[in-house]
Amino acid sequence: MNDTVKHERPDPAPAGAPTGQTPYSAWMRTDMLHSLQHPVSDHPGEHAWITSVQVSELYWMLIIREIQIAQAQLRADDLAQACRTLQRVVAHHEPLNATWRSIAWMTPTDLLSILSRAVATYGKDTALQGWTYRQMVYLLGIKQAEHLQHFMPQPQRWDQLNKVLAEPSLYDDVLAYLHRRGLAVPAAVLDRDFSVPYEPGKAVEQVWRDIYAGQDDNLGLQQLGETLCDIAEGFSTWKHLHLMATRRTFGGRPAYFGTEGIAWLLPTMNEIPFPELWSARGFIGDPPAVCPHMRK
Ligand code: HEM
């Protein structure tokens, strides 16, 4: 007796879904998503490389959207919702940073056999040509106009990044919000040209010190400060993992600019968002200054 079960194909296209799709595949665009990996080499690990970079791209875009939502909430003076949104940004850094595990198996031979095929297929590339990362970095307040040069072949992205460069960053919106809450953020900080690199200053340091002065005062603003620190930590952790992956797979070779890749990357480790929130920690919690004549 043949007990093979013969399955009949059910009626296609459930209500609402386009022909040939399920509601899940229509909503998640799975056919399109899984058509986006096109290896250039015959290295069996290239799929892991492409997937890892593409997942990072998706998370960078997600973080961009979240930061823009948080900026709108801050502009509407809705601190509670802005903090909730920024906590999602903190959460997104966890899977983003975990993507490095997916390519931790790579030796220099693995990486170079893939990269050499990419150069032969598309030309000399650098991740500095990635606009999502740059937009996220601009939104975090690290404004370096020189990176725009990489987008000359992509005029639409050049325009988009140029606009983001000239607009307030998340930190600018935080400082404007603190000003509206009555804290002494100088007018020169609020009215500056947003396209030039932010210059940290003593007055804003003092603002953060005042926010943290009393353990139980300004709890909402302290929570905002701590959430921003978590975001900066997540961002810097990504940079550290990237640097270690570069050391591991590339060593001291010259990179895109002809100089040693690690030497190019090392100074960028000091690009930590929200500068005075960190520098103020050198004196937050210090006892108030006392008049020397009062000392016993
Ligand atoms: C593991 C092998 C990797 C090596 C050896 C490497 C190497 C480098 C080097 C040398 C630079 C400096 C600019 C240049 O010369 O191109 C750079 C920048 C960068 N790379 Fe990588 N990279 C690796 C993997 C990745 C991956 C997987 C991603 C994305 C998921 C990525 C994203 C970036 C970004 C966003 C920058 C700009 C960093 C900044 O502006 O501070 N890299 N990389």
User: What is the total domain count?
Assistant: 1
Low-confidence stretches: none
The hetero molecules present are:
protoporphyrin IX containing FE
**Structural class category:** mainly alpha
Mean pLDDT: 94
Tell me, briefly, the overall form: globular
Number of strands: 0
Residue share in helices? 55-70%
Reading the helices and strands in chain order gives HHHHHHHHHHHHH
* Rg (C-alpha, Å): 24 Å
Proportion of residues in extended strands: under 5%
Q: Would you give the CATH topology?
A: Methane Monooxygenase Hydroxylase, Chain G, domain 1
- Major sheet description: none
CATH architecture: Up-down Bundle
In whole angstroms, the N-to-C terminal distance is: 104 Å
Describe the structure.
The chain is 55% helix and 0% strand. With 296 residues, the chain is mainly α. It has one domain: Methane Monooxygenase Hydroxylase, Chain G, domain 1 (Up-down Bundle), CATH 1.20.58.480. Helix 3 (46-75) packs antiparallel against helix 4 (79-98). The termini are far apart. Residues 52-53, 56, 111, 126-128, 130, 133, 242, 245-246, 249-250, 255-257, 261, 264-265, 268 line the site of protoporphyrin IX containing FE.
